[in-house]
Amino acid sequence: MEFKTLKVIFKHLFNFLVLSSLSFAASANVVLVDGYVRAMPASVPNTAAYFTLENHTANAVTLIGVNTSVAKEAQLHTIIEENGMVKMRQVTGFSIPSHGSLSLQPTGDHIMLLSLTAPLVVDDKVPLELIFEDGQQLIIELPVLKQAAQRSEQADHHHHH
Ligand SMILES: [Cu+2]
Q1: Which residue ranges form the domains of the chain, and what is each CATH number?
Q2: In angstroms, what is the span from residue 110 Cα to ligand 1's centroid?
């Protein structure tokens, strides 16, 4: 039963290495659907992670933090428009309604990875430990991509040189 659950959570992931140390007790039905970390030029110390989670439980859950070995700090960010300026702002949590989903994407909520410990290369795998308000954790692993193909139109607006 536990292996079947894990299989669903990681159906898109093939190189997952730390299954044995995890506790999925209450977050077993919060599942990663899709996601990636944006590749940046080696000179850029920060990047962002985007992913979609589905909450198949009977209760709302709130993502309140992210730990990762690839950056000094991971922050929950949202994008706001203020006086015609688009800005990022740190927030304390992303709520996922019961039987709803959370979509992090370049145009909105995202996980900011600050002070990368090493440049991320396309096709690297980035482990993220998601911390929920109820104390549960979910470890996911995302590929590093230049940008998601289906989101290229939006991502093009954020190129910096
Ligand atoms: Cu940000």
Answers
A1: 30-147 (2.60.40.1890)
A2: 6
